[in-house]
Design a protein that fits this description.
CATH architecture of the domain at 232-494: 3-Layer(aba) Sandwich
Structural class: alpha+beta
Largest sheet: 8 strands, antiparallel
Distance between the termini: 20 Å
Number of strands: 26
Shape: globular
Number of helices: 15
Low-confidence stretches: 1-19, 580-590
CATH topology of the domain at 232-494: Vanillyl-alcohol Oxidase, Chain A, domain 3
Mean pLDDT: 92
Strand content: 15-25%
Radius of gyration: 23 Å
Length: 590
């Protein structure tokens, strides 16, 4: 039955791939016009599962309208938050708190302001989607050298969270390192009309705060980015076993300008991405169209989701691993990993193509509307895949030791990693030390992982203790830092204190928004303001990643989950099942 469902889904994918795709739903929905609104993210749920409300939403089309929107809210002393087109952040960055706040959507601030080919500069409004920026630059023979892999983020959104690609070369893979100016609208005293536009050029001391701001300084209106002459990239994927990954994990980023490493610990396999710049005259017209970011058929989606729920909550390790190998949880990554040599067919490595067609992908937002026959895989309207997404940057010089510890954890029970492997395992990307106050303070390897989340609050996840130990190990033993737009609550606890220039950021915040109109309870907790913490101390909190357990009540003792030390990193505290290991092994054999 499961294999038949899989064949149906794959057939549907092949038939519908070229037909179209319904774009994701709007993150802001209002009961009465633009009033009495709720705001969510692309996945339909924030980490605490709470409903976020706002009194109203505004959709400015120009900078003047944006100034007017900020001024109106500032005059009324209403809280403000910015919502992007698709709202891809997991944390509550777009939630003003309470019911009386105002949401400013950048949906219609989506134009190119100027493009100076000679100076290699492009200025865009903050609501411009990444894929449109890349195409505009390419049409002028220019390229943005680095970007995230998902092309559906907006320029303002990706800057707010410090989004990045993968590179240790030059300025590194973070987009904000290529920002040379921006205009930001902030609250102001009544004598100045309640709102002002601040223009921050290259070299302005406040630019280091504004280009990774978590949205707490104001609303970015326009961004100017430095471009490079259009070039091509040559990509080859090589699969090996993980025996020497400790030796390779830091070195790979030095060997290849855009290289990354995808590690499936349970399988003991690593896929190394050899990705380098080549001259624009090199033959090839390759395209990156990653499977996970393509349109996904609605057919069978709810059934597949329910099957995964049953496996996670009641299945055996053997059943989960068989489902993972069969591609029932997610199609297994296979060569050519979504790349084609001409936009249609893969004929072999290397795949060579123009930068803007290789660096990011997202065809599920770039196809004609098809009435919800297909959509992005995570679309909550269609029984979406429901996941957590963790990304933690481990200092480069500690990456090998972290990999060794994860191997020790894996070796205790390789089957515990099957579900994680099914979603790609750990993707290692490279980041250089940043010039931004809230950018990474040192060269690092960013380990990104996605894993199952139940639609039922507090429901157990198979081997959740393993994932939780891995995350705590990265954060606490190895001094890792969480991605601002991903991760669960506990990952942000005390994180801001590890940014050497956090104090300088907060000084700018105090000047730009002294009344904290763009701040919320969540952002204050993440920034450690007044000693607050994003961790939530309540029954069952550790089951959802809202806290690190310190008491059995933080787990689910009624279901046999108790707070216990980690297996390799003993300082970790995780919710482990009290089901006897021997009995569990016997159940698997049966």
């Amino acid at each position: 039955m499961a294999m038949e469902l899989l064949r149906t889904l794959l057939a549907g994918l092949l038939l519908l791939h070229l037909a179209g795709s319904s774009p994701p739903p709007a993150p802001v929905v209002c009961a009465r016009g633009t009033s009495d609104c709720t705001v969510t993210n692309a996945y339909g749920s924030f980490l605490d599962r709470a409903t976020c409300r706002a009194a109203n939403v505004v959709y400015p089309r120009t900078e003047a309208e944006l100034v007017a929107a900020v001024a109106a809210a500032a005059a009324a002393k209403r809280k403000l938050k910015v919502a992007t087109r698709y709202s891809h952040s997991f944390p509550k960055l777009a939630c003003p708190g309470g019911r009386d706040g105002t949401i400013i959507s950048t949906l219609r601030l989506n134009g190119t302001v100027s493009l100076d080919v000679a100076a290699r500069l492009i200025t865009v409004e903050s609501g411009v989607v990444l894929q449109d920026l890349l195409r505009a630059a390419a049409a002028a023979g220019l390229a943005l050298p680095h970007s995230p892999y998902w092309s559906g983020v907006t320029v303002g959104g990706l800057l707010a969270t410090g989004a990045h690609g993968s590179s240790l070369w030059g300025k590194g893979g973070a987009v904000h390192e290529h920002v040379v100016g921006l205009r930001i609208v902030t609250p102001a005293p009544a004598s100045r009309g309640f709102a002002v536009v601040r223009e921050l050029g290259d070299g302005h001391p406040d630019l280091a705060a504004a280009k990774v701001s978590l949205g707490v300084l104001g609303v970015v209106s326009q961004v100017t980015l430095a471009l490079q002459p259009l070039f091509k990239r040559s990509v080859t994927f090589v699969e090996r076993d993980d025996a020497d990954l400790e030796d390779q994990v830091a070195e790979w980023g030095h060997l290849h300008e855009f290289g990354d490493v995808a590690w499936q610990p349970g399988r003991g396999k690593v896929v190394y991405r050899q990705d380098d710049r080549v001259d624009v005259s090199s033959p090839g017209d390759g395209v990156n169209d990653h499977l996970v970011l393509r349109p996904t058929p609605a057919l069978g989606r709810v059934e597949a989701m329910r099957a995964e729920e049953l496996l996670e909550e009641n299945g055996t390790d053997i059943a989960r691993c068989e489902a993972a190998e069969a591609g029932q949880l997610q199609p297994q990554p296979q060569p050519p990993h979504g790349f084609t040599n001409d936009g249609e067919v893969f004929t072999g490595y290397p795949v060579v193509g123009y930068q803007h067609r290789m660096q990011a992908t997202g065809s599920c937002i770039d196809s004609p509307e098809d009435g919800l026959l297909t959509s992005c895989k995570w679309d909550p309207r269609l029984g979406a895949t429901f996941i957590y997404n963790t990304a933690i940057s481990v200092p480069l010089h500690k990456a090998a030791a972290f990999v060794a510890d994860v191997k020790r954890l894996r070796d205790l029970n390789p089957r515990a990693f099957c579900s994680l492997d099914a979603r790609g395992g750990l993707l290692a990307r490279y980041i250089r030390a940043s010039s931004a106050h809230l950018g990474k303070p040192e060269d690092a390897v960013d380990f990104d992982l996605a894993y199952y989340r139940s639609y039922t609050a507090g429901a157990p996840r198979a081997h959740a203790d393993v994932i939780d130990e891995l995350e705590q190990m990265a954060l606490r033993k190895y001094g890792g830092l969480p991605h601002w737009g991903k991760n669960r609550n506990f990952a942000f606890d005390s994180a801001v204190g590890r940014y050497p220039k956090a104090g300088e950021f907060l000084e700018v915040k105090g000047r730009y928004d002294p009344d904290g109109l763009f701040s919320s309870e969540w952002s204050d907790q993440v920034l450690g303001i007044n000693g607050t913490s994003p961790s939530v101390d309540k029954e069952g909190c550790a089951m959802e990643g809202l806290c690190v357990c310190s008491d059995d009540s933080h787990c689910a003792p009624e279901r046999g989950y108790l707070c216990r030390p980690g297996k390799v990193y003993r300082e970790a505290r995780v919710c482990s099942s009290s089901f006897p290991p021997a009995a569990g092994a016997l159940r698997d054999e049966l």
